[in-house]
Design goal:
Chain A: Keywords: ATP-binding, Nucleotide-binding, Transport. The complex is a heterodimer. Chain A is an alpha/beta fold. Chain A folds into two domains: about 10-95 and about 175-185 and about 210-255, P-loop containing nucleotide triphosphate hydrolases (Rossmann fold, 3-Layer(aba) Sandwich), CATH 3.40.50.300; about 100-175, no CATH class. Chain A is about 35% helix and about 25% strand. Chain A has helices at about 55-65, 85-95, 110-125, 130-140, 160-170, 190-205, 215-220, 240-245, 250-255, and strands spanning about 15-30, 30-40, 45-50, 70-75, 80, 95-100, 175-180, 210-215, 225-230, 235-240. Classes of the chains: A alpha/beta, B mainly alpha. At the A-B interface, α2 and α3 of A face α3 and α4 of B.
């Protein structure tokens, strides 16, 4: 069913769960990556999904925005079944979702300003050029990159690229944020900065977020709730305290790392 | 008396037979898999082609990106095309001159060179150079965008990557390659005039009068039409190979390489078809 009503941060409150996944399965050739996975993302929360490499974390969030098609199961985002949406409906839904890629995925032939302008021109079509410029400057300032407007992505450090990418994601005011390994490849200080930024974004833009990571410090700093995946299945769900006090061998080994 | 047969009786062990059957089965399976990959590839390309056609006629056309691509293709290929055009005309003249001189038909030289360049050499050589320069560039650029998730990022920000990346490039190549061919043709004839003056003396006006007297509209028009197809083929193949690149940096190289090989092959095939059609019509 397609919901034609515009979803705003206010109307988003009518959804207790902004994302509902039931019995999701996804495989590649003979390898089953996700197996009957079910989870919910509640309104306004930061849900961290932990797991080792290859446990299906990234595949999961790519299925949520339908960059990958699931084999079985349902994914409901803001009340809409993602798998049943036609291309127009899917495009409309994607406008409400921000996706931070592991690599940052900044368009390397464009300056930082052009990178931020790219989604803004296409999603917030009614903005004037002046309003667009103001918004770009404001968002870049929020992520601590005020003086990088005319720089190319290759001129920025890894941490700055992640910040710029984050700015490009939040500039269209998404309701849901999906972070794919936001701190991978960064030093501990920069990682802490990104984690703090994730919390700031949640407060300032009132977003609900799924944070895919295997960085325990990032999980500690951002998580309201944690789900651990193992071999494509939910292994344990709880708060950071539940995980830290767990006697389970796998979780202990993970947290000791 | 026992009847003798001309054949020697050979006993084959059942184990050897079993091994041969297994080997045959494995080979058949491998070949089937290869055929499967081939047909899946063709299906993929048809789907990609259809999406490109569909997006070309969609309401929201990325005009600025189209202009940028036209500039990229035209501007970056211009020096290479200039040098090649001049050399092409020069070499053709130097090679043909002694033969025509032997037959006492030196006055036919400008017409022969112009006709060769406009009908065949200009379009094909320019298209092959563009296949190398533009096709590989598109394959590598889109391939690296795919590997670094930039195409996915475009898709999740509600921008159709085919509309933004592919349609603009294919249309730019389709429009710019004919213009580059006309430019190369002009430089080729200039190069020919320069080469003709190395061993003799012929005025610019006389040379061009003789050259254009030998050319009819029918020489020029089919040659121009086929260059649009060359452009579309180069753009489509470059974009397809980049867009369907696999994971990892190695696949970027493979995409660029196969874009050049396949678009060059397509240019030759289209040329063959165009020549046949022109021949039939005339």
């Amino acid at each position: 069913m397609t919901n034609n009503k515009p979803v705003t941060p206010e109307s988003q409150n009518t959804f207790n769960s902004v994302i509902e996944i039931n019995n999701l399965s996804k495989g590649f050739a003979e390898q089953q990556v996700l197996k009957n996975l079910s989870l919910e993302l509640h309104n306004g929360e930061n849900l961290v999904i932990l797991g080792k490499s290859g446990s299906g974390k990234s595949v999961l969030i790519k299925c949520i925005v339908r960059l990958l098609n699931s084999d079985y199961g349902t994914i409901k985002v803001l009340g809409e079944n993602v798998n049943e949406l036609k291309s127009k409906g899917l495009a409309a839904l994607r406008k409400k979702i921000g996706f931070l890629f592991q690599s940052g995925a900044l368009y390397d032939s464009m300056t930082i300003k052009q990178n931020l302008e790219f989604p803004l021109i296409r999603i917030k079509k009614k903005l004037t050029k002046m309003e667009r410029n103001k918004k770009i400057e404001e968002v870049l300032e929020n992520v601590g990159l005020a003086n990088t407007l005319d720089k190319m992505p290759s001129e920025l450090s890894g941490g700055m690229q992640k910040r710029a990418s984050l700015a490009r994601t939040i500039i269209v005011d998404p309701l849901i944020m999906l972070y794919d390994e936001p701190t991978t490849g960064l030093d501990p200080v920069t990682s802490d900065g990104i984690s703090a930024l994730i919390n700031d974004i949640q407060k300032k833009y009132k977003t609900s977020s799924i944070i895919i990571t295997h960085d325990i410090e990032c999980a500690r700093a951002t998580a309201d709730r944690i789900i651990m995946l193992k071999d494509g299945e939910v292994y344990l769900e709880g708060t950071i305290d539940d995980f830290e006090n767990s006697t389970d061998e796998l979780i202990q080994s993970f947290f000791k790392e | 008396m026992e009847k003798k047969t001309p054949f020697k009786k050979v006993t084959i062990s059942p184990l050897v037979v079993k091994e041969q059957v297994i080997r045959l089965g494995e080979k058949t399976y491998k070949k089937t898999q290869e055929a499967n990959v081939f047909f899946v590839g063709i299906g993929d390309f048809i789907l990609f082609f259809w999406q490109t056609i569909k997006e070309t006629f969609s309401l929201s056309f990325e005009f600025n990106e189209f202009l940028r691509q036209c500039f990229q293709i035209g501007n970056k290929t211009l020096p290479l095309i200039s040098v090649t055009g001049l050399i092409m005309g020069g070499v053709l003249t130097i090679q043909s001159r002694p033969v025509l001189a032997d037959f006492g038909a030196l006055s036919l030289l400008p017409g022969m060179v112009a006709s060769s360049i406009i009908r065949e050499m200009g379009p094909v050589i320019t298209a092959l150079i563009c296949a190398g320069k533009i096709g590989s560039g598109m394959g590598a650029e889109l391939g690296s965008m795919k590997v670094s998730e930039q195409i996915d990022a475009m898709e999740v920000s509600s921008t159709h990557p085919i509309r933004f990346l592919v349609v603009t490039r294919v249309l730019a190549a389709t429009l710019m390659i004919p213009i580059l061919v006309l430019y190369a043709d002009a430089l080729g004839i200039m190069g020919s005039w320069a080469a003709a003056n190395i061993k003799g003396s012929v005025s610019f006006v006389l040379f061009f009068n003789q050259a254009f007297r030998a050319i009819d509209f029918i020489d020029f028009f089919p040659a121009l039409i086929k260059t649009f197809f060359f452009g579309a083929a180069i753009g489509l193949m470059g974009c397809y190979k980049g867009y369907s690149a696999g994971q990892g940096t190695k696949s970027v190289g493979i995409a660029a390489n196969s874009a050049v090989v396949l678009s060059s092959l397509l240019v030759i095939i289209i040329d063959l078809i165009a020549v046949q059609i022109t021949d039939m019509l005339l």
